[in-house]
Design brief:
Elements lengths: L1 H8 L13 H30 L4 H15 L3 H10 L9 H18 L4 H15 L10 H5 L2
Helix pairs in contact: 2-3, 5-6
Length: 147
């Protein structure tokens, strides 16, 4: 059935068959919105930080593009780590990344920028550290997110 309609579905997006459970399509959609909305909020938060120093969003835009383009290079490695359950922390461990998250919170507070978003991110790292993942890769945060 799916193959018969794949061409039509391609007109509105990438047609993928994830199984007979039709609710998986909605779950995938929500997962995509999760990444999209969180990324947009993070982008605006970064702009608010930059603007607090008197710079313009337009001036900062090329840095945002560089940052967002760079994120794509982590996707395949992240998927491998999450699927394998192995989180080698030799390049970017959770303790280091958690310290960075704490710095973003501090910079936000010092600039008078709402810090709820970076606090949420720091909370993930704090909980990963409390669970013993400090030397693991930041990808070990999946264990916190899974509950």
């Amino acid at each position: 059935m799916f193959d018969r309609h794949a061409g039509t579905l391609a007109a509105i997006g990438r047609p993928d068959y994830a199984g007979a459970d039709h609710s998986l399509a909605q779950l995938l959609y929500q997962a995509q919105l999760d990444v999209f909305l969180t990324s947009l909020a993070a982008m605006l938060h970064g702009i608010a930080l930059v603007k607090s120093a008197g710079l313009t969003a337009e001036w900062y835009a090329p840095y945002l593009v560089d940052n967002l383009d760079t994120l794509s290079m982590y996707v395949a490695e992240t998927a491998r780590h999450v699927d394998s359950g192995e989180h080698p922390g030799d390049l970017a461990n959770a303790a280091m990344m958690g310290a960075t998250a704490a710095h973003v919170v501090g910079a936000s507070e010092a600039a008078g920028v709402d810090a709820e978003l970076p606090r949420a991110v720091r909370s993930l790292y704090d909980r990963a550290l409390a669970a013993g993942h400090g030397k693991d890769s930041w990808t070990a945060l999946i264990n916190v997110l899974r509950g």
